[in-house]
Amino acid sequence: MSSLNDISQEQLEAFVDGQLDAPDKARVLLALEASETLRTQVAELRRLKDMVRLAYDEVPEPLPRPIASPPIGGYAVAAAAGALIMLAVTQLIAWNWNGKSSLGDHSVATAATAPPQASLAAVDPELVMFHISTSDDRVGTELLDQVELVASQYRRSGRALRVVVVANNEGLRLYQVGHSQNERRIRELFARYDNITFAACGNTLQRLAGSGDSVRLLPQAIVVDSGVAEIARRQQQGWKYIRI
Amino acid sequence: MLNVLLQRKFVRKRVATLRERLFRTAYAWCHNRALADDLVQETSLKALENAGQLRDVRTADAWVFAILANCHRGYLRRADAVIADSDDEATEAEAGPEQVADQGALVERVRAAVARLNEEHRKVLTLVDLEGFSYTEVAEILEIPAGTVMSRLSRARRRLKMLLQSRMAESQGQISYLKGKR
């Protein structure tokens, strides 16, 4: 009976959580036998524990995707970067061959005036990442203005640069075919600069698709696994982060 | 080298098995499906990357959850700077009107209360109550002394009880009101 007072709240909880060794457990059991109050407390703790379990018994399904696979985005980005380098090399060869870009886009006129090495500069390019998560067209325009400003400044000064625009949540609309006022602008920027990547959050895409809103993206956009994870990864790799 | 490869294979399997539990825990921490999913994904990647660091396969689960806790800490650190858009789904956990049956109401009430616990309390509580980790394992996962696990857990439960009681009256009114409507 005297052991009753020795049972601390923490011991009682450890008892409920199955964390006591045999002697301590026996002590609590004995105390429980003797005390109505303790029994109520234990019942209360068990109830609370059950409630917590019940509350998360059915959480929303995680989004379906391959389990523990390497980041789709990682490969996609790598592939895209590879493609861009190839493109740059082709461009360079074209420049050397006939003094102008092989790309037929009208905007390339600007590019042709820049030293071709700019897009190939070998050492440590500046890494800049923009993030958009709103569908507001004005914000989208502002973002593209900034991207273009940075890209053109670097090109002019012949410094190496890589830009990635990460769009998630409603920001994805920026890349949606037939949705964004900036559609043409993205096509142009993509054609003019080989160092800009447009990345769309695959999570958001799936989520939208899940709610019956299947978004068709501009072919200029690549899909990464998760926008937030992409941002975190790149930040770790030293990308400068600019949220619009 | 071979060892690392085997370990990677083991970790890959283990993470796949744990995925649902990781997601549940991550969800209980942040109450946001997209973020929880990101955290689980990040955890899987980091676990694979660092598979070589797993010293004892018997502690693999706690090791993976420790990575989850780290990812979440990282997220919180970055949160101010990076993510303001998680608000978009902040209300996701709240029930739609058709869901507010007895169980639904209870679930929402408990989740709301858990969401109001402070970060440290919430983590200890969910790791113990949802995932059934031992105090020692939780101490390892969260990198805190076992004594701290116990005191936090105790405080978390006291606070949770209080939060639930204070909401008890209003939601009970709500339930009986709904029952009356049927």
Descriptive report:
The complex is a heterodimer of chains A (244) and B (182). Chain A is of the alpha/beta class. Chain A folds into 2 domains: 1-58; 60-243, Hypothetical Protein Ychn, Chain: A. Chain A is 51% helix and 11% strand. Chain A has helices at 9-16, 22-34, 36-55, 72-98, 108-113, 137-157, 183-192, 202-210, 227-236; strands at 126-132, 161-167, 196-201, 221-224, 240-243. Chain A has a 5-stranded parallel β-sheet with strand order 4-3-2-1-5, sandwiched between helices. In chain A, helix 7 links the parallel strand 2 and strand 3. In chain A, helix 2 (22-34) crosses helix 3 (36-55). The radius of gyration of chain A is 29 Å and the shape is elongated. The model of chain A is unreliable at 66-82 and 85-122 (pLDDT under 50). Chain B contains 7 helices and no strands. With 182 residues, chain B is mainly alpha-helical. Mean pLDDT of chain B is 80; it is low at 81-100 and 173-182. In chain B, helix 4 packs antiparallel against helix 7 (146-181). Chain B has helices spanning 2-30, 33-49, 60-79, 102-116, 119-129, 135-142, 146-181. Chains A and B meet through helix 1, helix 3, helix 8 and helix 9 of A and helix 1, helix 2, helix 3, helix 4 and helix 5 of B.
Q: Would you tell me the overall average pLDDT of chain A?
A: 76
Structural class of chain B comes to: mainly alpha
Count of the separate structural domains of chain A: 2
Query: Percent of residues of chain B in beta strands?
Result: under 5%
N- to C-terminal separation of chain B? Answer: 66 Å
> Are there runs of chain A of 5+ residues with pLDDT below 50, and where?
66-82, 85-122
Largest sheet of chain B: none
Q: Indicate the multimeric state.
A: heterodimer
Share in helix of chain B = over 70%
Helix content range of chain A: 40-55%
The top level CATH class name of the largest domain in chain A: Alpha Beta
